[in-house]
Amino acid sequence: MGMLKTVAQAWKVAEIRSKMIFTLLMLVVFRIGSNIPVPNINRSVLAELFAGETGLFDLFDLFSGGSFSNFTIFALSITPYITASIIIQLLGMAFPYFEKLAREGVEGRKKMAQYTRYLTVVLALVQAIGLTVGLFRRAVVDKSAFSIIVMVLVLTAGTAFLMWLGEQINERGIGNGISLIIFAGIVARIPSGIRALATAVESGSLSIVTLIIFIVVAVLVTAGVVMIQEGQRRIPVQYAKRVVGRKMYGGQSTHIPIKVNQSGVIPIIFALSLLQFPLTITYFLKSDSGFTEFVTKWLSPSGMPGVWVYGVLNVVLIIFFTYFYTQATFNPVEVADNMKANGGFIPGIRPGKATEEYLQKVMSRITIVGAIFLALIATLPTVLSVIAPESLGSIHFGGTSLLIAVGVALETVRQLENQMLMRNYQGFLK
To answer: If residue 74 lies in a helix (H) or strand (E), which one and from where to where?
Structure first.
């Protein structure tokens, strides 16, 4: 209710209302483009390609809001941009040049954003070639060089346009543009899921009791996601008073917020990519090959005992990647050094090495809670597929989509609150 109240209050402010309308219009453009098909594709063959288990492509289809399986101009979605952003972040930890850019403030971030754009176009071009010449080659009607080039350029341009669309939302709208594009794709799948539920109830394959249990579980899980996303450990920090010239600085108290889910949805994406990779390889092989039969039995969520092996590996990988990514984004050594350099200290903890060890211990303890929760959320679709494979299996109620949708909604509302707060401050100063 608090979220709806914030949106209602923001809508009354003309300046914020114009930003909200602009954001909605940009998302409408995205959804229109998601229904424009790439030329030179046989739709019946395309439907056959996605009739069975599609492995890693389910993740691509999630981010594109169904554009990938329909092979529209936004089939690549914003996935190349996400991959480019992760690569640039990792380069910032491995190469001094990128690490220096990350510390240069606004100008450094602009330079890294420029590199991210260039890398996005390159990755989009490579993926477009791979899809056109590789995965979707059976659905391509005209295999001439000119036709292939046109299709590749259309797909690449679609990703570049989405990247521009996201930046326009960042500058003139509300919220993070890239996140909102993914959010719009996920939300667009909800009506089809509701329709699948209604059809299952009418046909008798899904009982009313099972439907009620599913709704209750969905509400509880969503509440849990909100709690974990908002949860944080606040470590108190005190700054000592110091005199510079005739002025006195410091003496104030603040805190270091350490989020329970510091890594967001990245661990689930990494784990899912690794687990789905063998299934994706089988998509290019014959169904009776030895590798395909082994993967289907032992590593597939549709196999037995593969469903249990898949679930256990998923939990282990998510916990591992949660710790890995948290360590990459939160550096206790750097935080402790910055505090010491500015005269800050944690009450009861010595500055320097002791502070670093304390931060590391707190982060490790709080990360395990977030990691276990992420693992439980990610295995939810597998549990649902075992409980009711025929009825609930068609509903896109996955951990990845739920975390993204809730996280983006909370972040957007938080930005609305910040803009309203800034407007109040400006009115007071006037």
So the answer is: none
The residues that bridge with 244 in the sheet, in sequence order, are 247
- Look up the pTM and report it: 0.77
Q: Are strands 253-259 and 247-249 parallel, antiparallel or unpaired?
A: unpaired
83-118: pLDDT as tens digits: 888 788 778 777 788 778 777 777 887 888 888 999
**407 token code pair:** 């996280």
* Per-residue pLDDT tens digits for 354-382: 888 888 888 888 888 888 888 888 777 66
Average pLDDT value over all residues in the chain: 79
Is residue 221 within 8 A of residue 380, CB to CB? The reply is yes
* Burial state string for 259-294 with b = 16 or more CB within 10 A and e = fewer than 16: bbbbbbbbbbbbbbeebbebbbebeeeeeeeeebee
Radius of gyration of the chain (CA): 24
Selection from 181, 179, 1 nearest residue 74 by Cα: 181
Q: Is 238 in contact with 253 (CB distance < 8 Å)?
A: yes
